[in-house]
């Protein structure tokens, strides 16, 4: 990849587009997404893992466009929910799910059980309760239809779920994702700060290293 090149990201999530545009922009690369192509096929995200879904999104769109495509499948794994919502994070609150409804459902699901668990006793200065340990996961897959090869990476960030949203940055579950070591919720970080510590930022850094190796070798 060279300065000025365009990267196609197979996503319809505006928050992801913003983060990829920020990261690739620093490398002099443009980002386009599924918003820029009206007639792409729908991808059913029926994989059992983030990596499986990322590969499927990348390959489906890359085959349709006849060029390399990057895809991101990500989500939230909550300890007190045995890893749910996981690969179902986008659809957690059912048909017509929105970030707001997903967040409301998460707090509801955790609040009921929280009183019984020792790890749910802590509160923040503003009285918000820490409901469970959790982590964000991001799987990235870049598929090149010319070679039939995937380049893949995965990133993680650990935090705790709070019962009152904080901040207006990021997207998705970010307002409920407390980062104890920073004393802020993920939605209270700038895009730059989020990139430096997030599951997506970590996965992207790893992917870039692997792409460089792939193109040198
Ligand atoms: O599949 P595409 O079109 O990329 O967009 P999507 O929003 O459906 O994306 P996923 O299928 O990967 O689902 C990811 C879910 O996890 C949430 N999520 C992923 N990354 C996140 C992040 O950085 N911050 C907050 N929530 C995140 C997000 O809100 C979704 O509900
Ligand atoms: Mg999706």
TrEMBL record:
Catalytic activity: dITP + H2O = dIMP + diphosphate + H(+); XTP + H2O = XMP + diphosphate + H(+); ITP + H2O = IMP + diphosphate + H(+)
Molecular functions (GO terms): ITP diphosphatase activity
Residue numbers binding Mg(2+): 44, 73
Family annotation (InterPro entries): dITP/XTP_pyrophosphatase (IPR020922), ITPase-like_fam (IPR029001), RdgB/HAM1 (IPR002637)
Entry keyword set: Hydrolase, Magnesium, Metal-binding, Nucleotide metabolism, Nucleotide-binding
Cofactor(s) the record lists: Mg(2+)
UniProt EC number: 3.6.1.66
Residues that bind substrate: 11-16, 74, 171-174, 194, 199-200
Subunit-structure text: Homodimer.
Family: Belongs to the HAM1 NTPase family.
Function field: Pyrophosphatase that catalyzes the hydrolysis of nucleoside triphosphates to their monophosphate derivatives, with a high preference for the non-canonical purine nucleotides XTP (xanthosine triphosphate), dITP (deoxyinosine triphosphate) and ITP. Seems to function as a house-cleaning enzyme that removes non-canonical purine nucleotides from the nucleotide pool, thus preventing their incorporation into DNA/RNA and avoiding chromosomal lesions.
Protein name, UniProt field: dITP/XTP pyrophosphatase
């Amino acid at each position: 990849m060279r300065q000025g090149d365009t990267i196609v990201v197979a996503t319809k999530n505006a928050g992801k587009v913003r983060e990829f545009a920020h990261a690739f922009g620093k490398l002099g690369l443009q980002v386009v997404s599924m918003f820029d192509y009206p007639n792409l096929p729908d991808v059913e995200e029926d994989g059992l893992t983030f990596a499986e879904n990322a590969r499927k999104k990348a390959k489906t769109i890359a085959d349709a466009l006849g060029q390399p495509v990057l895809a991101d499948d990500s989500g939230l794994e909550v300890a007190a929910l045995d890893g749910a919502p996981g690969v179902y994070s986008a659809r957690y609150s059912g048909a017509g799910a929105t970030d707001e409804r997903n967040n409301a459902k998460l707090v509801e699901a955790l609040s009921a059980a929280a009183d019984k668990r020792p790890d749910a006793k802590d509160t923040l200065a503003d009285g918000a309760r820490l409901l469970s340990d959790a982590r964000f996961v991001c799987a990235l897959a870049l598929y090149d239809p010319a070679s039939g090869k995937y380049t893949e990476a995965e990133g993680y960030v650990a935090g705790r779920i709070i019962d009152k949203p904080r901040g207006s940055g990021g997207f998705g579950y970010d307002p409920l994702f407390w980062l104890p070591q920073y004393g802020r919720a993920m939605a209270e970080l700038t895009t730059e700060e989020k990139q430096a510590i997030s599951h997506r930022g970590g996965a992207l850094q790893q992917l870039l290293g692997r792409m460089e190796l792939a193109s040198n070798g």
